[in-house]
């Protein structure tokens, strides 16, 4: 893979990101001229409160994080100074967010609000900081074979995202005490959750097998996950998490002691099996089938945005784990992407007969997203 292919992948990812953000902002794409355009504009601009609810705020922030990351990557080959690149991404991103809110005035199902632009801007800043931090870590040689470990470190980030969602910090002693109760005072146990925590940590351990100080890294992210749950709204420490983390660390130590290829085989089949099992829960068919959503991300926009975004991150993690691990075994990127996409599509089709599940084409497209992402991160990203 040459540098030109990497740049092309970045451009495609950036275009895809813009399309998806636009789709998410203007769904369901039914436009209507407002009865009083001036009043609609005033409603958008003048708000009594900038806080529009936890789900709305978190969704607007997260929506623009990839815009910031990809925007900076897309300008990597320009002659602009780094500070100017960041300023250009921030200004154009804010203008994009503002334009979407203006168009939302003509979408009756959406509520145009200037506060959304503010939270979008925060997401842009976070994306810019993440992109700069990732580049800085690689440039300083903090990791052996840093280029090849960019994607595994991204998986570490996704693992922490699943543990910390929805990322709303709180400094409240009462919350700390409440977060500890499911572990110390009234132990809360969920066997399925404990197994998932253990397996996800074991997968991360195999992906960072070549990382310098891997034991310290793994113990560190577990400590971070536990600490974060004490200071993130809606999170708590439970017996399931504690047992899962301990089991995951033990599994990691066991994987590191066996030959690498054998460990990768085991990890990839465990990841695929877990993804499959979870997609087929609750294992009992419904009396009748439900519709299948062929338009990407439609299901994400229905119901709780926080819960749906967490589900999307979950799919990204497990499908990414299968792709990266299988690629280490020599699987062809194109064939792997197609096969995993078809498998995800088949499982989503089965969900039309499962109660409480929403069948959606989005998971079937995520392997292609991973393929583009890895190409964008550089020539060594598929290799160790």
Task: Explain how this protein is built.
- With 384 residues, this protein is an all-alpha fold.
- Among the domains are: 1-140; 275-384, no CATH class.
- It contains 14 helices and two strands.
- The chain has helices at 3-26, 37-45, 54-74, 82-104, 114-139, 150-164, 173-184, 191-207, 214-230, 239-257, 260-279, 305-328, 333-350, 362-376, and strands spanning 292-293, 359-360.
- A two-stranded parallel sheet has the order 1-2.
- α8 (191-207) crosses α12.
- Residues 140-146 have low confidence and may be disordered.
Order of helices and strands: HHHHHHHHHHHEHHEH
What is the average per-residue confidence, as pLDDT, rounded to a whole number? Answer: 86
Low-pLDDT runs: 140-146
Main sheet strand line-up = 1-2
Overall strand count: 2
Overall spatial form = globular
Which percent range describes the beta-strand content? under 5%
Radius of gyration from the CA trace?
22 Å
Q: How many helical stretches? A: 14
Distance between the termini: 14 Å
For the report, how would you describe the main beta sheet? Answer: 2 strands, parallel
Helix/strand/pairing category: mainly alpha
What is the share of helical residues? Answer: 55-70%
Key descriptive features of the protein:
384 residues, mainly alpha, two-stranded parallel ribbon, globular
Q: Can you lay out the helices and strands and say which pair or pack?
A:
Blueprint: H1 3-26, H2 37-45, H3 54-74, H4 82-104, H5 114-139, H6 150-164, H7 173-184, H8 191-207, H9 214-230, H10 239-257, H11 260-279, E1 292-293, H12 305-328, H13 333-350, E2 359-360, H14 362-376
Parallel strand pairs: 1-2
